[in-house]
């Protein structure tokens, strides 16, 4: 229930943003209005998926005529086979030994999807991904969702949406600061591994939240990253109860440890001063119980 509070705060922001979007000449071309893209970003387990569905429901309650679509960046993961190929290509990069980080998504599929949204005519497909396959490693499944266009609002959620790449020199300074918590966490991987993730991240940013050719706003769920271990284990327990497959406690902890350096490098900046989308950003701070404890609009 607390995550619904995030959805309520986000819905008010999205509705006002959409009202401005309708009147924006840049959003209308050749008689077809571009959809408003709403990016929802937050750590694993913070309630992104639940909140995204809640925003859709509340939007359609407020304006039943709106056509709203919810997708996740996770829908666009590479197939298990292709993920295995990436892992073998970078055997010494622990952050690429499995799905999750920038560089483990099918960018061709994602580019095609975003292109169809800009055209906002005809139809497009959202791939389906089952995280329980292969003992929790995950795989794409043949259950793609057809979306008839045009649509009014597309909500896309993901844990690294809004992260901005940083210069390699800055990465080196962060990693070499052995007396800070951040430096100690970054010591887990060599600098070249971070540089690779950094380079991949820019491709996502250019296509999505920094893309001037789409109209977008963002909702950032700001939380203490130490809560992720508890939240992610809760998610995996639910997945196992539902499907009979998933990661063990030890696998979950190892899985999250691959993400922690990226939270230290990029998420802290996004929470403090970042922008998500080109039409405005709402930052919703939550506590360990996912209750809202602060709101900031940028």
TrEMBL record:
Compartment(s): Cytoplasm; Nucleus
Pfam families: Zeta_toxin (PF06414)
Keyword Nucleus included in the entry's annotation: yes
Gene Ontology terms, MF aspect: ATP binding; kinase activity
Keyword list, A-Z: ATP-binding, Cytoplasm, Kinase, Nucleotide-binding, Nucleus, Transferase
Superkingdom field: Eukaryota
GO (cellular component) term, any one: cytoplasm
Residues annotated as domain Zeta toxin: 26-88
InterPro entries, per the entry: P-loop_NTPase, Zeta_toxin_domain
PANTHER family: URIDINE KINASE
Entry's family note: Belongs to the GLYK kinase family.
Protein name: LAME_0C01420g1_1
Natural source organism: Lachancea meyersii CBS 8951
